[in-house]
Structure formats: structure tokens, C-alpha cells
Design a protein that fits this description.
Blueprint lengths: L2 E2 L2 E2 H32 L3 E2 L5 H21 L6 H25 L8 E2 L17 H15 L4 H30 L1 H10 L3
Antiparallel strand pairs: 1-2, 3-4
Helix pairs in contact: 1-2, 2-5, 3-4, 4-5, 5-6
């Protein structure tokens, strides 16, 4: 058993995961508020079929991480934990930059308000899907903070399948209602 300041690292890791759960609950509250705003503006919710799979994957991730650490007695590797924790913080910064850039338009669901211009500023100036890049990295690094490598591997694979569907749904909706591809081509052709 590893300890930091006399506290079992598994307990500290479980507390970290508890903080992530609280963060997700805050995000769901933001989603509800923003979804209501978008629907009131004539927004259309599209591709609801993949959403339960996405919720299940992320919920099970937060259960599998501590389960693997506690049940399979995964070791705490300080160097790995430090690198993964730094990546986790950077990932969260990217995620919240994307959320702040989208403002009221950010939700965990695909809700498209026809006619609104596509956002191409903030991290969207550099990446088409900065939030999803952050999610991919987070799903990989969160388990590895305490060497839950099996969870990192399995959920990263599952996440790629869910995101493949999600991105196709989102881009299709935005392109149909908001000239998504054309907006990004124009943004890319502007000088930096």
C-alpha cells in the first residue's frame, strides 16, 4: 500500500474521482440550462440515440477506475501519477476553454439552433473538436493516475466508437443547419 502524507493513495485517488463526479454533475446542470435556452431559440435536438451510450460509458468509467485500483491492487507509481495529473489538468483547461467559448451553446447533447453562426474562435480556431480531444485524453489519463491500465485501454476503445458516432451526428446537424464545413473552411483560410 502506497501513502502520501500518511494517506492511502487509493483513498486519495477515490477522492479525485469524487471531485470529477461533482464536476460532471455541475456540467449536467449547465447542460440543462443551455439546452432549455437552445430549444427556446428554436433549437433542434438531434441524434439522441447515441446519448445513453455516451452517458453509460462515462458513468462506468468513473466506477471502473476505483474498482480496478482497489480490486486488482494496482500500484501507485509517483512519476506516472504526476505526468497523468498534469495531463488531466491541461485537458480540463482545454475542455473549459471550449465550454467557455461556446457559452450558452454548449451542451452534452447535440442541440443545433438553425441560423446561428458556427463558432470558429477560441480553441475552435485551431481544432474542430477541442472538447472531444480533451475527452479522449481524459478517458486515457484519469485511470492511469493510479495505473488502472485495463480501464484506460478498454474505455479508450469504447470512447472512440461513441465519439465516432457523436462527431458524425454533430457535424451533420451543424452542416445542415449552420453551414459548418463552409464556416471552418473560411476560418482556416484567414491569415493568423
Amino acid at each position: 500500500m502506497s501513502e502520501i502524507l500518511g494517506i492511502d493513495t487509493r483513498v486519495l485517488y477515490s477522492l479525485l474521482l469524487g471531485a470529477v463526479v461533482l464536476e460532471r454533475l455541475v456540467e449536467l446542470a449547465i447542460t440543462q440550462r443551455n439546452r432549455a435556452w437552445a430549444l427556446a431559440q428554436g433549437g433542434l435536438e438531434i441524434g439522441e440515440g447515441h446519448y445513453p451510450w455516451m452517458v453509460a460509458l462515462h458513468t462506468l468509467l468513473l466506477i471502473a477506475c476505483p474498482a480496478e485500483v482497489w480490486l486488482l491492487d494496482r500500484p501507485f507509481v509517483p512519476g506516472l501519477a504526476l505526468v497523468m495529473s498534469i495531463l488531466l489538468v491541461l485537458t480540463m483547461a482545454l475542455r473549459y476553454w471550449a465550454i467557455a467559448t461556446l457559452g450558452k451553446r454548449w451542451t452534452t447533447r447535440v442541440v443545433c439552433v438553425p441560423g446561428l453562426p458556427v463558432i470558429t474562435g477560441g480553441p475552435y480556431r485551431f481544432l474542430r473538436h477541442p472538447n472531444y480531444l480533451a475527452v479522449v485524453i481524459e478517458v486515457l489519463v484519469l485511470p492511469l493516475v493510479h495505473t488502472a491500465w485495463l480501464t484506460a485501454l478498454l474505455f479508450s476503445i469504447g470512447n472512440l466508437f461513441v465519439l465516432r458516432t457523436r462527431i458524425a451526428v454533430e457535424e451533420g446537424a451543424l452542416d445542415e443547419h449552420n453551414d459548418y464545413r463552409e464556416s471552418f473552411q473560411r476560418a482556416r483560410s484567414r491569415p493568423a
